Amino acid sequence: MFVREPLQLLKIAVSCWTNTFVNAKNDTSKKNCKNNRKTMPEGQKVDSFKFTVQPFDDDYTGRLSWSVLGKHVLACAENHAGARGFDRLTLNGHRFLWVLSRMSFDMITWPKLGEEYTISTWICRYYRYFTDRCFDIRDANGNIIGYVFTIWAMIDETTRKPQVLEELFGHTFDPYIETERYCSVQPFSRIRLDNSFCLHNRPTYYSDIDENNHVNSIRYIEFILDTFPKQLFSTHQVSHLEIAYNSESYCGDQLGIWVKESATDKYHIVVKKNIDDKENQQTGETVCHCAVTFKPLIRQEKIK
Amino acid sequence: MFVREPLQLLKIAVSCWTNTFVNAKNDTSKKNCKNNRKTMPEGQKVDSFKFTVQPFDDDYTGRLSWSVLGKHVLACAENHAGARGFDRLTLNGHRFLWVLSRMSFDMITWPKLGEEYTISTWICRYYRYFTDRCFDIRDANGNIIGYVFTIWAMIDETTRKPQVLEELFGHTFDPYIETERYCSVQPFSRIRLDNSFCLHNRPTYYSDIDENNHVNSIRYIEFILDTFPKQLFSTHQVSHLEIAYNSESYCGDQLGIWVKESATDKYHIVVKKNIDDKENQQTGETVCHCAVTFKPLIRQEKIK
After folding, report:
1. Whole domain around residue A257: which residue ranges?
2. Does B301 map to a domain?
3. What tens digit of pLDDT does each residue of B97-126 get?
4. B208: which of A77, A125, B38, B204 fits an S-S bond (Cβ 3.0–4.6 Å)?
């Protein structure tokens, strides 16, 4: 399996601060972290990355697309962790890497074509197998336009088993934890789809696969939103979306998507792979659960 | 139909120079162009935009993905034109906008995760209905790693008919033409697929549609590459890809993809929409023609 080398990652972390990913803070003091792979900015727990919605970063309504926002959020997480030396670990010959377990988005408004926005990220806690990473998204004036809350586990690359984080990091993980900045944390929904049927089937292809060799986490969000009528996005925006990842899917897997309205404008979705009976939810392995809330646009925006 | 306003476009053009899209030149002198919508840097015909391959900008092999490269190329074109006031025109109450007619990529090497690259773009000529726009792509050391050549037409937004460019722009278009910089121009292939069969079918969804309300030009490239086995990208890279756009497709269209090997590692592809007979090429409307050349990787790279 392909794993990026520490030196290459350091290069990414440094270059991101001078280009697309502009770190909003300028604290350049450094100290070595325990695993001695990289250096970290001392005392800086939050990193901020500035973006502009470029042509083709938007969807057909002119709003930032899920694809671009989602991948930027993941890249911010990787760059934040990489700059501090804990994007992945090698201990006693074992490699450990982060996997995304759950993610929720609460969006107040969406940045539109040509608008600037800043994503800030930090870790708010870790506990046994998991760590919580928060993000806030601000417009060019510094106003909050969205929050993202994520839960990650660190797994052994070979056994794929989650690891007890305290045992991996000891006390050296504590200096990275930011507890004072407001983080949107909501209990995740209990997603049930009794008596629903498979709405949608689609295979996965080369272009769906990322460098972890499985379907990119954000692609599932696109697959799920693609089950709704395109026209819905002209009158509504997604105000809340949460997704829990259960298992990985790979190039060539056939995904089945179950959708059920749980309340007005609220939907529960389950994605399964390699189902052999479209009518029967019992077949196939669950890839992810998702809950989506649409909110009607208050002022009719300039949308086709 | 949703059309971005000039002021919004100016904001895009300006903001791109200070963020993701970093203009490599600093000539800030301005003069008004004839249509008086915006200002342009005097005498500056080439714009350069700097990027880093961020996490999730790459495909599973760690190379910059087609999706990201292609959309960056289109965004560079739009930003270059927008900064000079000819990204679109409004004359006598008619709106005119650019549509991409043909595009070819010649890639020597692909930037990889964490590497910097710069895309430069300029217009090399215009003639009756068309204009040729060139791009070169350089690595962090300034070495050429690829060329892109494109042909565009300006159409009336209502009638969708191409316009005679001299009549729209008069002499004011001439100062933008750069003829001295090397541009990769090759005659486009004659693409024939006699006796082939439809290899692949896929519908189009919300996430495939861009702000022009049709399937994004780069998405077709992804659809086409998705017809090849994923493993091929571990041993080969795409060295040449050309695509000619015949008609637009929309959300919900069913696309059929015909593929035929024209020589070793060279393929001809036709994409049609809404075919009613998989065996029969005569049905359905042609959306685009494409030719792809794969090149074996010389040094076995670190790929899964």
Report:
1. 198-296
2. no
3. 999 999 999 999 999 999 999 999 999 999
4. B204
